[in-house]
Amino acid sequence: MLRLEMIEHVETPRKAVAITFDDGPSPVYTLKVLDIFEEASGKATFFMIGRHMEKYPEIVQTVKERGHEIGNHTYSHARLTSLDKQDCLREIERVDEMIAAMTGRKASLFRPPYLDYHAPVVSVCGRLGYKMIGALNTDALDWEQPGVDHIVQKTRRHIRNGSILLFHDGFGDRSQTVEAVKILVSELHSQGYELVTVSELLKLKL
C-alpha cells in the first residue's frame, strides 16, 4: 500500500509559517483575508472546494493574481472515508482539472475534508502527485465559531518555525476567523515571521 504522510509542520531554521484557509472561495471572507495578507506583505494557501470555485471564479482569479497558492479540497467537501476509490478519484481529480484550467498551474497540495482519509485517498493522492497537508492548530476550532479569543489563544500555542496553521474562509459566518487572523498576522509580522505559502515552506525544510 502507498504511504503518504499528513504534513502538519516543516523542520526549518527559518522564522516562517504557512497560514491556510479551507472551504472557500467566499465573496465576503476570502476577500477580507486577502486584504489582511496584502497589508502584511504575506502569502497564504487556500484549499478550495470545487463547487465554490464554479460559483466564484473571479475570486479564484483574484487569489491567484495576488500571488497566493491554491490547493485541492475536493469538489463537494464529501467525507472521503465514506467513498470508494473511484468516487474519491472523481472528487479530487475534478478539482485538480479545475485548478489547472482556472489558474494555468497544476496544484500540488491536497487537504482532505475533516482531515479524514483512508487508503483509497492515499492511493489517489499518490497517483495525482499530491502532498497531503494537515495543520497544528486544529484545536482552535475556528469553524465552530468558539470566539475570537479562543481561536487566537489556541493558535498561539502552535506558532514556531515551520508551523502550518488552519482556518476557514467558507461555509457560514467566518467573521470570528477574520478577526482572529487579523490579530495573529499582526503579531507574527511584528515578531519577524515570514508568512509564506505551503509550497514555499516545504522548500525551507532542513
Short description:
By secondary structure, this protein is an alpha/beta fold.
Describe the structure in your own words:
With 206 residues, the chain is of the alpha/beta class. The protein contains eight helices and eight strands. It has one domain (6-203): Glycoside hydrolase/deacetylase (TIM Barrel), CATH 3.20.20. It is 42% helix and 14% strand. Strands 2, 3, 4, 7 and 8 form a five-stranded parallel sheet that branches. Strands 1-6-5 form a three-stranded parallel sheet, with no helix packed on it. Helix 1 links the parallel strand 2 (16-22) and strand 3. Helix 1 packs parallel to helix 7, helix 4 (85-103) packs parallel to helix 5 (119-128) and helix 6 (148-156) runs parallel beside helix 7 (175-190). The chain starts with 5 loop residues before the first strand and ends with a helix. The model has no long low-confidence stretch (mean pLDDT 96).
Q: Main β-sheet, in a few words?
A: 5 strands, parallel
What is the overall number of helices?
A: 8
Number of strands: 8
User: What's the CATH H-level homologous superfamily?
Assistant: Glycoside hydrolase/deacetylase
Oligomer: single chain
- The helix content, as a percent range, equals 40-55%
Average pLDDT number: 96
In the CATH hierarchy, the third-tier topology is known as TIM Barrel
CATH architecture: Alpha-Beta Barrel
CATH class label: Alpha Beta
From the alpha-carbon coordinates, what is the Rg to the nearest angstrom?
16 Å
- Please state the overall shape, judged from the principal axes of the Cα atoms: globular
Order of helices and strands: EEHEHHEHEHEHEHEH
Q: Separation of termini? A: 27 Å
Strand residue percentage:
5-15%
Q: In the residues, how many domains can be counted?
A: 1
Low-confidence parts: none
